[in-house]
Design goal:
About 40% of the residues lie in helices and about 20% in strands. It is α/β, with parallel strands linked by helices. The chain has 2 domains: about 1-30 and about 210-305, Luciferase-like domain (TIM Barrel), CATH 3.20.20.30; about 30-160, TIM Barrel (Alpha-Beta Barrel), CATH 3.20.20.30.
Length: about 300
């Protein structure tokens, strides 16, 4: 069994964090972002560009890019250029968003169209990454005789990882994604999503042998497990504007080293093979990441820190 691990980082908030986290020997680093969210937030592609310049060899990606807010041609060009600049280390995590309707108003995108726009954009990105001249009829992104080149380093373009929580996102992952990365899931719900995606893929005649099973896991580890859970609830509540105290033990990994290790193992048993730790704290982030890397990750015998291009 091969496992791998990564962290979500925020290079705009802490210029030193990327180097410190990469030095821990994890397999990946990820950035997220919004255009107009409830809380101040960097934009995902800007953060990815900074991450590409500050990292050396680790896999990097977006977790996530709200794809329906963007013109696919711009995303295709920027990701291709970044993939070439960093030697083929990029993965593109995408989702439909919707928790902040103001973002859609700001970008002039109808909220009700976000799913259909995402489906069309995912397919269009792969076509644009061929670096051949294409004509695309739409309906949302019609273009005629367009050629975006040079192509990304990775053949066929970077992996596109589908994020989300609902069955429609699972269908998207099963039909067109290179991986699945849900968030705010319990291990039981994760196991159910694996079964659903596999069944959908089989029904559609799709081979998932190279498919990546990821979990975006909100994590807080402290000696005082109760304080870790309290801090995690406060962190999530500030992000999603709701009371997370009753939900922390179900959708996050918060507690002592022993408790968090057990929680991660539940996700591994449910089918996850790449855990992306989203630290549920705004302070001492590198210290918490270091603790996870030194005290939790080594408990999983199947994990390997092979970070060579294309080894994920």
């Amino acid at each position: 069994m091969r496992l791998s691990f990564g962290f979500v980082t925020s290079p705009l908030h802490d210029p030193e964090e990327v180097a410190a986290m990469e030095a821990l020997g994890v397999n990946s680093l990820w950035v997220g972002g919004h255009v107009a969210s409830r809380n101040p937030s960097p934009e995902a592609l800007i953060q990815l560009a900074i991450l590409a310049t500050r990292s050396k060899s680790v896999r990097i990606g977006t977790s996530i890019l709200l794809l329906p807010l963007y013109a696919p041609a711009i995303v295709a060009k920027q990701i291709a250029d970044l993939d070439r600049a960093c030697g083929g280390r990029i993965s593109l995590g995408v989702g439909v968003g919707g928790e902040y309707p103001g973002e859609f108003r700001a970008c002039g995108v109808p909220l009700a169209e976000r799913g259909r726009r995402t489906d069309e954009a995912v397919k269009l990105l792969r076509t644009l990454w061929t670096a051949e001249e294409i004509t695309h009829p739409g309906p949302f992104y019609p273009m005629e005789r367009v050629k975006i080149h040079p192509a990304p380093v990775q053949a066929g373009g970077p992996p596109i990882i589908i994020a989300g929580r609902q069955e429609v996102a699972m269908r998207r992952a099963a039909s067109m994604g290179d991986g699945w990365m849900p968030y705010l899931y319990s291990p039981q719900r994760y196991a159910g999503s694996v079964e659903t995606i596999k069944a959908l893929a089989e029904a559609g005649g799709r081979d998932l042998s190279k498919f990546e099973w990821m979990q975006f896991l909100f994590t807080n580890v402290q000696d005082d497990g109760q304080k870790a859970r309290s801090d995690m609830a406060q962190f999530l509540g500030g992000t999603y504007n709701q009371d997370f105290k009753p939900l922390v033990d179900r959708v996050a990994a918060a507690g002592t080293v022993r408790e968090v290790t057990a929680r991660v193992r539940e996700f591994v048993d449910a089918g996850a093979r790449h855990i992306v730790f989203m630290l549920g704290t705004k302070e001492n982030r590198v210290a918490m990441a270091t603790r996870i890397a030194r005290e939790i990750i080594p408990a999983f015998e199947g994990w390997r820190a092979d970070r060579s291009a294309g080894s994920f």
